[in-house]
Amino acid sequence: MAVQQQYPPGPGMGFHQQYPPGPGMGVHQQYPPGPGMGVHQQYPPGPGMAVHQQPTQVVTVTTSGQNLGTWSTGLCDCCADMGTCCCGLFCFPCMQCQTASDHGWCCCMPLLDFCCVVSCMLRSSIRERHNIPGSCCDDCCKIYWCYPCVWCQMNRELKIRNRQHGSNTVVTTQVVRG
Fold first, then answer.
1. Tell me: the pLDDT tens digits for 20-48?
2. Facing residues of 26 across strands?
3. Chain center to CA of 18
4. Strand 26-30 with 2-6, pairing
């Protein structure tokens, strides 16, 4: 048995509210709103009602003219970017914060670089992101012996890679199985 009951709204009232029927009842009622109400309320499907989600697929393709397997500049290539070297010489913490920020990290992370842990993590992350070969041991040794040079190299690398980022092609779709 389906019962439908409707009350006309008063002047200036555009309220519509639906209540789900109880078990075994097919009741549809509309009630007039109070003054100044313009609300539409709908409840989610009840038990036994099917909700379907369409599958999609994730594919990411990145292309770049940069050779992904090497550092763009050497550890001591200060002449490759004099601005970075001057910044590293005169305001090293500023350059560290800029480097972390350019990589997508919090710019304050280098300020917490006790025992070079943040430096090693950042260098390793840059290597992984750009498929540059190396090891954690290699990173730690270079940071321990050539700390400012390593930070300048990371800064130059991110500048070069971010400059070339405009030539990358990325196609993304998503697969969801549910």
1. 555 555 544 555 555 555 555 555 666 66
2. 2
3. 39
4. parallel
